[in-house]
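User: I've been trying to design a sequence by hand for this structure and keep getting stuck. Would you show me what you'd pick, starting by listing the structure so we're on the same page?

Assistant: Good idea, let's start from the same input. This is the structure you sent:
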């Protein structure tokens, strides 16, 4: 199987210029033991997603290896680091990362599904890995016991970034996560860096992941609930904010800036505690939409730059602070 792993590493190398520690880690871990299905080696060791297990109506996959290498690289993963993986599935990527961080490091994988979690325990035991721990829980809460972490690596498309991850991250630590922007069905991955002043995020790559469940996949419902509590307070719109950018760009930027969008009967809403807005090619606002206006103002300063070229600023609770362009920081 070593030859097949070398073949995989050659494919990963074609996708980017990755650190030797990362490539070597892929040489160490047999991918087939993480799958309950039997595949031919040219499938298991292709640079592709494979379905690794099913449980009733859900399933889990091992993500594309070169994309994982890119996430590790963007996270700055190095020997000795402590990593929290959210959505560890049957554990392949966590075990690869365990080789990258080495014996002085630690990987903690959190998986919401009990069956997939059990499979990951089995695989790690079969490999006699002592620097990887698996937890069966909702990844929204992170895992306090081993905090602080150098890196949080998210391998499931999350609707928002959990403030718990920020709390459990070291200063200068990074989170790499695909964000599920449900209103435009897009999953851009971002690198979120914790600084002494707050959190700074930049776009990394467009992705396709399994959509998160639990508290990482209920943002739309939560925002709809907030909307239904306040919408009766207003009858007439107070304003209409026209923006010179497409619906696609606007909804993307507003989702990532504020985690405040929801969808109902074909309409997209932006929800605040005491005000809301509805997307009609521009924002039709109801009440004092302070946050919405702050985002519009900041975005105007960037001359409505697309999401991929923006820098997002937040506080430690992941509340919006400001926007800049990449080339103007
Ligand atoms: N890293 C895995 C890929 C897993 S796919 C590997 O290398 O094989 C994404 C996983 O995220 C699925 O197993 C899914 O059950 C899990 N998941 C979904 N929502 C979650 C949540 N809220 N918390 C933790 N895990 C979650």
């Amino acid at each position: 199987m070593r030859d097949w792993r070398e073949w995989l590493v050659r494919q990963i190398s074609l996708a980017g210029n990755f650190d030797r520690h990362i490539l070597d880690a892929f040489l160490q871990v047999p991918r087939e033991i993480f799958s309950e299905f039997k595949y031919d080696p040219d499938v298991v060791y292709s640079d592709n997603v494979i379905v690794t297990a099913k449980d009733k109506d859900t399933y889990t996959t091992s993500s594309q290896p070169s994309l994982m290498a890119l996430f590790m690289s963007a996270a700055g993963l190095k020997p000795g680091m402590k990593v929290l993986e959210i959505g560890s599935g049957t554990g392949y990527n966590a075990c690869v990362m365990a080789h990258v961080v080495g014996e002085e490091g630690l990987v903690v994988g959190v998986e919401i599904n009990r069956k997939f979690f059990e499979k990951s325990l089995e695989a790690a035991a079969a490999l006699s890995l002592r620097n990887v721990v698996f937890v069966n829980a909702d990844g929204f809460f992170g895992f306090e016991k081993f905090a602080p972490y150098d890196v949080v690596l998210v391998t499931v498309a999350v609707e928002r970034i959990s403030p718990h991850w920020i709390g459990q991250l070291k200063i200068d630590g990074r989170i790499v996560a695909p964000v599920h922007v449900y209103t435009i069905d897009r999953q851009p991955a971002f690198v979120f860096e914790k600084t002494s002043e707050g959190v700074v995020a930049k776009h990394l790559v467009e992705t396709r992941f399994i959509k998160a469940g639990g508290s990482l996949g209920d943002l739309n419902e939560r925002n709809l609930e907030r909307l239904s509590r306040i919408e009766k307070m207003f009858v007439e719109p107070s304003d209409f904010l026209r923006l010179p950018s497409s619906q696609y760009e606007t909804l993307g930027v507003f989702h990532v800036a504020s985690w405040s969008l929801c969808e109902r009967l074909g309409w997209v809403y932006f929800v605040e505690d005491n005000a809301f807005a509805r997307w009609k090619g521009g924002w039709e606002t109801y009440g004092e939409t302070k946050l919405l206006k702050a985002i519009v103002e900041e975005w105007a300063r960037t001359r409505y730059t697309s999401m991929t070229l923006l820098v997002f600023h937040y506080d430690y609770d992941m509340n919006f602070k400001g926007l800049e362009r990449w080339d103007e920081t």
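That's my pick for every position. To get oriented when you compare it with your attempt: The radius of gyration is 21 Å. The chain has two domains: 2-210, 218-328.
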